Amino acid sequence: MRMSGPNGDPNIAGDDGALLTAEDEFNEEEYAAINSMLDQINSCLDDLEERNDALNGKLHELLESNRQARQEFRAQLNESDQKRPPPPPPPNEDSPPSQA
User: Fold this and answer.
1) Taking 80 as the threshold, does the pLDDT of residue 75 lie above it?
2) What is the distance between the alpha carbons of residues 34 and 27, in angstroms, rounded to a whole number?
């Protein structure tokens, strides 16, 4: 098997910094090990994506629940404000105090 760089370059650097040419080959065990590592990484990424999606869904549920709770709380406040008589006007400082 021949190896090329990320842009199709015929030469890439190996671990030791030496250039690997198109003629260099890797054995099957090395490819199997790389494939296994990539499969593990892919599996971990899939798991993270699932967890992220679940958390995102729960967050949206929580936001909607909080929105509904705020609306209900405002409605209750408005109802209680409408049932309560308005407060008396503040006393006028120019008028004499009332004698009770």
Assistant:
1) yes
2) 11
Q: Which amino acid is at 52?
A: N
Using CA atoms, how far apart are residues 1 and 27, in angstroms rounded to an integer?
9
- Asked if 22 and 2 touch (Cβ cutoff 8 Å), the reply is yes
**What is the rounded CA–CA span in Å between residue 3 and residue 26?**
9
Answer yes or no: is pLDDT of 38 > 90. yes
Q: Output 81 or 15, whichever has higher pLDDT.
A: 81
- Distance in angstroms between the alpha carbons of the first and the last residue of the chain: 107
Q: Could you tell me if 47 and 54 are in contact, meaning their C-beta atoms sit under 8 angstroms apart?
A: no
pLDDT at 40 over 80: yes
